[in-house]
Amino acid sequence: MPAQQDTDRGFLTFKDFKKAFNSASPQLSEKIIVEAFKEVDQDSDGCISFKEFESAMKYGQDEVSPVCFA
Question: What is the tens place of the pLDDT at every residue in 19-51?
Fold first, then answer.
């Protein structure tokens, strides 16, 4: 039986987060990935919950768009 992945438990570990970043943007430094993880991990428990992930994905959506309508 295969080992259960952390994402199956409803959270992302730093290892999961780093793997996703390295896949999407392999040029990013470890330092940037660590800082991004700390920012998203709002409760500093070392895991990113779905709620924290959702909050990060919605970041800035409530701000007024700079698009001007003519």
Answer: 999 999 999 999 999 999 999 999 999 999 999
DSSP string, 26-58: TTS-HHHHHHHHHHH-TT-SSEEEHHHHHHHHH
Domain ranges of the chain: 9-58
Phi, psi of 26 (to 5 degrees): -65, -15
Q: How far apart are CA 27 and CA 30, in angstroms?
A: 9
Fold of 9-58: Recoverin; domain 1 (1.10.238)
Write down the pTM of the prediction: 0.70
